[in-house]
Amino acid sequence: MLKWPMYDLPFEPTLLYWLGGVSVFDREETLGEALRVYNPNDSSDREKIIRKFILARLEHLPYRHRFLMFKILEDALAQLNFDFSKQFESDYETNTSMAWDETEIDDHRGFFEDIYKLAGEKWKSDLQKASFEDRSKW
User: Fold this and answer.
1) Per-residue pLDDT tens over the stretch 71-83
2) What pLDDT, on a 0 to 100 scale, did the predictor assign at position 6?
3) Residue 76: per-residue pLDDT
4) Cα–Cα distance, 122 to 3 (Å, whole number)
5) Cα separation of 115 and 70, whole Å?
6) Residue 102: exposed, middle, or buried by beta-carbon count in 10 A (0-12, 13-18, 19+)?
7) Percentage of residues in the chain with pLDDT exceeding 70?
């Protein structure tokens, strides 16, 4: 079983992990302010958000972990009726607060499709490497 880097805990990512870079809980005055200058509905700004805050935050993950993250996203995108807006909902009981809530994003699926596209480009060699391995041996 694949474990978290530096922890002896199973690595079981969820779709919400993708938005960790734009989760501003207890960081509204720092990260929140840095993110609020961007418009998540503008394609140019969205690309900057994804590259600078989402993908950069995941750079420390080894290639196998990135592969599993990518697969979680791919599986969600394959479901035509998947409700991506729920990923942007704040939940203060679980310390989750997004820079933009679900009402501020015009195209929730499009946001995740852009993450998928940019992650696929940036991680292309890592994703290919992991795809050739036997996942049961991780």
Assistant:
1) 999 999 999 999 9
2) 80
3) 98
4) 23
5) 9
6) middle
7) 100
The values of phi and psi at residue 98, to 5°, are -90, 155
Helices (H), 38-137: 43-49, 63-78, 108-122, 124-131
Closest CA to 88 of 71, 73, 105: 105
Tally of residues, the chain: 138
Question: Which residues touch 53 (CB under 8 Å, ≥6 apart)?
Answer: 21, 22, 31, 35
Between CA 91 and CA 84 the distance in angstroms is 15
Integer Rg of the chain from CA: 15
For the cut 90, the answer to whether the pLDDT of residue 28 exceeds it is no
CA distance 8 to 12: 12
pTM of the model: 0.92
Tokens coding 96: 């989750």
